[in-house]
Write a structure and sequence with these properties.
Elements lengths: L1 E9 L4 H15 L5 E8 L6 E8 L2 H7 L3 H9 L4 E9 L8
Antiparallel strand pairs: 1-3, 1-4, 2-3
Length: 98
């Protein structure tokens, strides 16, 4: 299993547009084979900051997701509202620091 932590900063006044576009993508993504969970969150202190937390059963499932029409539509729509974007792929293992 892998996690994707994606952070977005949206342009001023576009948070509602970003959320609407994300909802369409999320609704289709959770139906995909290999998608364990896919959730979008909005900061309560900074509404322009959004975080997507995704869990996939494999890198291959994530790769298939990146080729879907709904993901491509989400990325294209982002041109209107995304000011900054970054994503990290991480493992679910906790680092033992004992």
């Amino acid at each position: 299993m892998i996690y994707v932590i994606a952070e977005l900063r949206v342009k001023p006044g576009t948070a509602d547009k970003a959320i609407a576009a994300a909802c369409a993508c999320v609704a289709e993504t959770v139906k995909e084979d290999g998608c364990i969970s896919y959730d979008m969150h909005q900061s309560v202190t900074d509404p322009a900051h959004m975080v997507l937390v995704e869990r996939w059963d494999s890198r291959e499932a994530l790769a298939r997701h990146l080729e879907t029409p709904h993901f491509k539509a989400w990325r294209a729509a982002g041109a209107d509202f995304v000011a900054e974007r970054k994503a990290e792929i991480i493992t679910p293992e906790t680092i033992d620091r004992r």
